[in-house]
């Protein structure tokens, strides 16, 4: 199943997805990496691995979010993409684009949704005194971090944790969870569900 990954920055989840999709038995093939940020380190890395990697900078579009998304959509369609993974894609999508990918767009969020939607999740989990924290892969809907949950992975919060130590523990689980959830979604498409 031809799959695109959308990133804005570092791209460690993208790397995990690329690594998984290198296995010919993996049901999704990452054929495109797109970023709104031309400087995203993940773009260069994907290109180096022979994956088509492209930036479509949002800035020239000003406040017209949909115009930027139409440009993204054109590239997604031109590449025959059937599944989209948001992986640290830091732009909120409009209902226009989300509507075009209903059930076919996944996101990873660094918290156990519905707890801690939005930003700074590790700080907030620590402040709230949570004993468990983790990550969630969910389908993207118009409400930010609100779509149906596909899967979660938990980690313990340990004494002395900082947002950085806790975040690193969560990130390691993200790198396992996201490929597993992508595989499941792609397999469902192959099975005609
Ligand atoms: C991850 O923590 C992910 O859960 C969140 O943004 C971060 C992206 O990191 N949505 P990376 O670019 O995948 O390294």
In words, what does this structure look like?
The chain is of the alpha/beta class. The chain has helices at residues 12-21, 41-48, 65-78, 95-100, 121-127, 163-190; strands at 2-7, 29-35, 52-55, 83-86, 105-109, 132-139, 149-156. A seven-stranded mixed β-sheet has the order 3-2-1-4-5-6-7, with helices on one face. The protein is globular and about 50 Å long. It starts with a strand and ends with a helix.
CA-to-CA gap between the ends? 13 Å
Content of β-strand? 15-25%
Number of strands: 7
Unreliable segments of 5+ consecutive residues = none
Helical stretch tally: 6
**Shape call:** globular
Strand order of the largest sheet: 3-2-1-4-5-6-7
Roughly how much helix do the residues carry, as a percent range? 25-40%
Q: Please write the string of helix (H) and strand (E) elements.
A: EHEHEHEHEHEEH
**Which ligands, by name, code or SMILES, are bound?**
5-O-phosphono-beta-D-ribofuranosylamine
Mean pLDDT, all residues: 97
Catalytic activity: N(1)-(5-phospho-beta-D-ribosyl)glycinamide + (6R)-10-formyltetrahydrofolate = N(2)-formyl-N(1)-(5-phospho-beta-D-ribosyl)glycinamide + (6S)-5,6,7,8-tetrahydrofolate + H(+)
Function: Catalyzes the transfer of a formyl group from 10-formyltetrahydrofolate to 5-phospho-ribosyl-glycinamide (GAR), producing 5-phospho-ribosyl-N-formylglycinamide (FGAR) and tetrahydrofolate.
GO cellular component, one term: cytosol
InterPro entries: Formyl_transf_N, Formyl_transf_N_sf, GART, GART_AS
């Amino acid at each position: 199943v031809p799959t695109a990954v959308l990133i804005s920055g570092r791209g460690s989840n993208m790397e995990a997805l690329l690594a998984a999709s290198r296995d010919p038995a993996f049901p999704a093939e990452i054929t495109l990496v797109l970023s709104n940020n031309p400087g995203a380190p993940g773009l260069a890395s994907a290109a180096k691995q022979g994956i088509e990697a492209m930036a479509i900078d949002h800035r020239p579009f000003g406040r017209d979010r949909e115009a930027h998304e139409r440009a993204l959509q054109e590239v997604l369609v031109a590449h025959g993409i059937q599944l989209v993974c948001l992986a640290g894609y830091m732009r909120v999508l409009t209902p226009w684009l989300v509507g075009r990918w209903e059930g076919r767009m996944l996101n990873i969020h660094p918290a156990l949704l519905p707890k801690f939607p939005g930003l700074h999740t590790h700080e907030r989990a620590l402040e709230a005194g949570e004993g468990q924290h983790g990550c969630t892969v969910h389908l993207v809907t118009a409400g930010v971090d609100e779509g149906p949950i596909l899967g979660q992975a938990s980690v313990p919060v340990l004494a002395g944790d900082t947002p950085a130590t806790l975040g690193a523990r969560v990130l390691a689980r993200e790198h396992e969870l996201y490929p597993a959830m992508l595989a499941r979604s792609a397999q469902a498409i192959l099975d005609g569900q």
